[in-house]
Amino acid sequence: MVNQISVLLVGIGGYGNVYTKNLFHGNHESVFVKGVVDIAPERSKFYQEFKDKNIPIYDSMDQFYQENQADLAIISTPIHLHKEQACLAMEKGSHVLCEKPATANREHLQQMIETRDRTKKKLAIGFNWSFTDSIQSLKQDILAGEFGRPFRMKSLVLWPRNADYFNRTGWAGKKYSPDGEMIFDSVANNATAHFLHHLLYLSGDSIETSAEIDQISAELYRANPIETFDTCAIHLHTKNDVEIVYLASHAIADEHRPKYTLEFEDATITYHPEGERGDIVAKWHDGREKVYEDPENIHSVKLDVMIEAVRNEKQSILCGPEAASAHVNAIFGIHQSVKDIPKFPKHWIAYDEERKLTTVQGLDETLKQCYQQFCLPNDLGVEWSKPGKIVKF
């Protein structure tokens, strides 16, 4: 008989709907939702189903833990709440799966690690790809030296996001919460955070760590009326001597699947998906190839891994705070690189009333050119470009 695992869902709107769907309608017969914490649960697509199943709904985690205990707490709440909620759950005896990013505050990340170590609980950060078999296989091959030493990586993510996206919540695009907690919600710290983390994770020296950043510089821009940025071009070097360029924007008209290129001494690895699917292809200089399955369409693996880790103390969680720390440091570094985020010049900006979408003329082509040439817009001499300062770690 498999032990039943009790789950507390903290946040059931937004991405919390994905976890709820997996728990209610996936293959998790030995897992049950013991309670829900959400200040506006009616926003969940599954609100009526929670009611029908008589799952209690609480306004706060304190209320839940006064009456209950849970084996696993899944946290899908705003960025600035992650540390407090994750630490509380671990203090109350729950393992934690916290949605990405871990936090925007480097000190908060350290507190999460210290709480995990003291309580002996497991803490996973939900960067989807890092939990998949294909990415684990790829990283194991990298660590085994199958491709030689990595020396250069680049990624491009062009994902349009309209006014509804930026107005979906009071913290969207904000630097700080009303009580002064760091949010730094942006294209790099939310929707496309996975893909910046991914390059850092693949550069890491062990299966559960990402590469440490040596220095970073950035160009950050905004076309939408937000405090942070909807477009970024990031250039960084890791302490293990990998150079990375990361390019992403919400201020473009057409959506493209994320892509990347990883350059090694003996091989080049590309992820250039077209349509619904795109495998990761490693090509050695001698003509050999190896294919890794597209990780993008598998979003429940992190839940599966965490459930198994709750059952089995020796089970690795694959992507914990150590793996997520490089992304937290990258967000800190780019905001140090560009403290006053510029707006795109008005004459470059267009607004589509029907789509409620703000775009920047020619931005997609500029970022594609940057991807091809492994550079930032200012290196191309683009009119609106402004370089940020270099930040050393």
CATH domain class name of the largest domain: Alpha Beta
Count of structural domains:
2
Can you say what the CATH homologous superfamily of the largest domain is?
Dihydrodipicolinate Reductase, domain 2
Task: Bin the helical content.
Answer: 25-40%
Let me know the number of strands: 17
Q: Looking across the biggest beta sheet, what order are the strands in?
A: 14-13-12-11-7-10-9-8-17
Main pleated-sheet profile: 9 strands, mixed
Low-pLDDT residue spans: none
Mean pLDDT comes to 96
Shape: globular
Radius of gyration: 21 Å
What is the count of DSSP helices, taking H or I runs of 4+ residues?
Answer: 11
Q: Report how far the terminal alpha carbons are from each other.
A: 50 Å
CATH architecture label name of the largest domain: 2-Layer Sandwich
**From the helix content, strand content and strand pairing, which structural class follows?**
alpha/beta
CATH fold naming of the largest domain: Dihydrodipicolinate Reductase, domain 2
List SSEs in N-to-C order: EHEHEHEHEHEHEHHEEEEEEEHHEEHE
Describe the structure.
InterPro entries: Gfo/Idh/MocA-like_OxRdtase_N, Gfo/Idh/MocA_Oxidoreductase, GFO_IDH_MocA-like_dom, NAD(P)-bd_dom_sf. The chain has eleven helices and 17 strands. By secondary structure, it is an alpha/beta fold. It folds into two domains: 124 residues, NAD(P)-binding Rossmann-like Domain (Rossmann fold, 3-Layer(aba) Sandwich); 241 residues, Dihydrodipicolinate Reductase, domain 2, CATH 3.30.360.10. The model has no long low-confidence stretch (mean pLDDT 96).
